[in-house]
């Protein structure tokens, strides 16, 4: 009986001593909370990751427990690295680590992973505005896939010429620079990366050719304007040579058209009567004064003047050359006077 009592006494002493030691370590910070971390918290589906749990006091004999939520995944003595595969949403966490010494234990902060889609190769566009002495260059870079935010960096050959430009929306990052026209050609590219480490993508190289100091910045515009002017002149000459023979042929046909003013019906035209006073003209005995003069314009656009007169008839004796043996007598000759 006395042996049992002695054992109970010794056990209670050890428990009290451990409790006193745990309380003392908490007050003196001899047993701080463990650290739980990974190289990255951004992962792709199916990626293998490592979680490290350790305490800065390596002299203590510590047992480590890894939890995901309330589920214990692993137990191990000493500083430990837990290897995991993140395949589903539940594998993202939260994770926490417990460090235990005797009956004294502490927990780390929670750790969570995040699924991130890798970026694709970005597209680089370059716009150049050239003056007589300088070139103003605008660089635009965008990656059409990958989780946001995305950081863009512009390079000239292998040297970065811009800081990292972060975009939280799917739009191009822009960077402007000025170069002298006398400089040699340059190669440009851009880099796109998000939170995934070692998954940066680069655009294709684009080379801007060099320009000499005596270059003409507007030569291309002037050349294009001269070409258009030459094409216009050629078109005008073709139309002129094509229409001129037709015009000459039509005019020749109009000039050679016969004009008959007898019983042949006259072409349609415009007629106008112009009446003038004939007082100044010499009076002819037996002939009434001429009252009107008509002008006609036919379809050929040629004017012609038509005079009207009143004929007067009178009997006259036949001439000698008009008599013949076979002619019958009894004819009366008259003379028409205009």
UniProtKB/TrEMBL annotation:
Cross-referenced Pfam families: Ig_C17orf99 (PF17736)
Keyword Methyltransferase included in the entry's annotation: no
Transmembrane segments: 222-244
Location of the IL-40-like Ig domain: 125-205
Coiled coil: none
Signal sequence residues: 1-20
Top-level taxon of origin: Eukaryota
Keywords: Glycoprotein, Membrane, Signal, Transmembrane, Transmembrane helix
Name of the protein this chain belongs to: Allergin-1
Organism: Balaenoptera acutorostrata (Common minke whale)
Organism phylogeny: Eukaryota, Metazoa, Chordata, Craniata, Vertebrata
